[in-house]
Amino acid sequence: MIKLDNVSKAFDNQQVLDGLSFEVADGESLVIMGPSGAGKSVILKHIIGLLQADNGLVEVMGHDMLTIGGPQLQKLRRDMGYLFQHSALINWLSVFDNIALPLRETTSLSKSDIDDRVMEVLGLVHMQDAHLKFPAEISGGMQKRVGLARALCTHPKVLLYDEPEAGLDPEMSSEISRMIRRLKEELGVTSVTVTHSVNCALTVGDTLAIFEHGKILLSGPPTEVLNSDHKRVREFLSAPID
Ligand SMILES: Nc1ncnc2c1ncn2[C@@H]1O[C@H](COP(=O)(O)OP(=O)(O)O)[C@@H](O)[C@H]1O
Ligand SMILES: [Mg+2]
C-alpha cells in the first residue's frame, strides 16, 4: 500500500531523510516515533506528495510519487486523509462547513449528498450535535475530532496522522487514540501515525518504528520495540518529551 525504498531528502545542507525504507501493508497501522525535528512530518509529506524525494522510491497505492501526473495526484490525494498537527480548521467556517469544504472542492456530489456525508462522518467521531458551532466554540479535543472527520470525509483508503495527541490533555489524547484505532478496525484503512505518546503508539500501532538520523533505527510490534534494550531507543524514550 505504501512503500519507501532508500529514500533521501536534504534541505540546504541538512540531510533529513537518509536511506529511509519501510512498507505499510494494506490495512496496517504504522506508528512512527522519533525526536523533534528529526523529519517525521517530512516523511508524511512525501507520502501525500507535498514533497518529493531527492533519491529513492516512494510508492503509494501503486503510484510512483516521483512520476505521478497532476490529475492522478489529485485523485490519489482524495484517497488519502491527513490530520494536521494543529487541526487546521478554518475559524470563520462552522464545523459543518469545515468538513463540507473538501467535498465541495474535490467532488461533484450534490448538496444533499454532501449534507449526508458530513453528518455521517460527524457521527463517526460523535460530533453531530456540534455541527453548527464554530471552531473557537469547541474544546481542543473536539477540534481534533472535527479534523479527523474532515480527514475521513472523502472515504480515504490511507490516513496520515501528524501528532494527533499534540496539545491535548492525557484523557483527550487517549480518546483520540482509541478513535483512530476504532476507525482502523471499522473502516479497514491503512494508516501512518506520527506521535510522541507511548500510549498512542500502543493503542494505535500494529507496528512501531523508531526514526532518527534519517532512517528507521528499529521497528516491530509496539510492545517489543518499547521494551527493547536498543541503547538509543532507551535514551529516546526516557528523555523528556517536547
Ligand atoms: N519545506 C522545508 N524546507 C526546508 N526545510 C524543511 C522543510 N520542511 C522541513 N524542513 C526541515 O526538516 C527538518 C525536519 O522537520 P520535520 O519533519 O518538521 O520534523 P519533525 O520530526 O519534528 O516532524 C527540520 O529541520 C525542518 O526545519
Ligand atoms: Mg512534525
Descriptive terms for the model:
242 residues; alpha/beta; Rossmann fold; 2 domains; 4-stranded antiparallel sheet; 9 helices; 10 strands; 39% helix; globular; binds magnesium ion
If you had to describe this structure to a student in words, what would you say it looks like?
With 242 residues, this protein is of the alpha/beta class. It has two domains: 1-79 and 158-242, Rossmann fold (3-Layer(aba) Sandwich); 84-155, no CATH class. The chain has helices at residues 40-48, 70-78, 95-106, 111-124, 140-152, 170-187, 198-204, 222-226, 231-238, and strands at residues 2-11, 14-24, 29-33, 55-60, 63-64, 80-83, 158-162, 190-194, 207-212, 215-220. It has a six-stranded mixed β-sheet, with helices on both faces. Helix 3 (95-106) runs parallel beside helix 5, helix 4 packs across helix 5 and helix 6 (170-187) packs parallel to helix 7. The relative contact order is 0.18. The mean pLDDT is 92.
What's the arrangement of secondary structure elements?
Layout: E1 2-11, E2 14-24, E3 29-33, H1 40-48, E4 55-60, E5 63-64, H2 70-78, E6 80-83, H3 95-106, H4 111-124, H5 140-152, E7 158-162, H6 170-187, E8 190-194, H7 198-204, E9 207-212, E10 215-220, H8 222-226, H9 231-238
The structure holds adenosine-5'-diphosphate (ADP) and magnesium ion.
Adenosine-5'-diphosphate is lined by residues 11, 14, 16, 36-42.
